[in-house]
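Lecture notes, unit on protein representations.

Consider one protein chain, 381 amino acids long.
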Amino acid sequence: MHFSPAVSNGSAAELAQQMESAVLLPFAVAAQSGAQYSTDVLVGAGPILSMKCELDELRARCHQQDDITTDIDYFLSYKDPRNCRPLVLTFRNESRLVAAVFFHQVCFVWVGTGLVCAGDPVGDGLLIAPAQERETFLRRAIEELVSVKKKFHTVRLLVKTSRSARLVDFESSQIRTKVVERTVKHRLVLAATYQEMLASFGLRTRRSLRTKRRQVEETLRPDFVPGLAPEEAFEAMCYLRERASLPPRSMWYFEGRRRILKAHPDAFAMGLRSHDGTWLSILSGWRRNGSTYVDVQLNHCDYIRESLSAVMRAFLLEYEIAIGQKHLVFVGGCSALLERYCNPSESVVDLLVTRYSLRGACFKRAIRMLCHPSFEQWIYL
């Protein structure tokens, strides 16, 4: 019996060619879609707010709706525009918004310097994008600002990633990079009860939380107010602004906190007030899906020996556990008192990208001449 070949020689060659095309097609499509991304730079609050609805929709698509640090209202209120001008770099595939990167341009008296920064100390608040493509969009954003548009000579990023190599793979030889990697811990798992929470801490931490709280309760007889109204919280922040141990923030920042408290139903503020009405401490943040995020705490500097920071954290822990919260997240980083009990450890990359320009060289020289050395170290690592 004679069997005809299922595939002729010519057909086999055609099949191999088809298979090769099928294998290469996804890579070709990916490369093509990457090339199709169009970019736009939005500078200032007006243009950025005009696409708030689109950005909120993108946050939901990328599962970042719980992260208020990528909310436009929060981003615009984070820094004073006199010193840091907000800008957003958007990526579109045809007309569809697929990613957005948040920057602030450092300014001196409203004049831009060509230096942009992004990210908070723990690497959050700088990007809306699908999780698997974050590094890709960040690298393209840097290239767009520094090499393509050439509007900026220096980019300073703090980004949470364990894949730093993807951020520094630049084709241009004119770009210089410097990378510092570290780990952060700022998420605390809450126990079922406050006593169980204290028992999970070490001896010194328990003593600090218990003893200091008891001393303050005996001497200052404070009132703990867990739900401050926006205006009352703003009043307390303004009072403690000049009396806090940390360098004072601008009024713009606290006005922004007031707007967040008014606009977001899950935002909150709590305070500690002495029996004579003196504000001792205030803390604010937001709650989402069982997690409490803390982004502001101010403590009266006249009561350093009373450790108001630890006392306020004790009230915070007790209250959040009582209302059934499961996690406590310290936005921007955690104090040493509780950091050792936070998990997981996450990798943060401190990245400096520079392109030589006369403007950049003059700016760097001016910083060395006019600014404190710590400011130069902060910018240039």
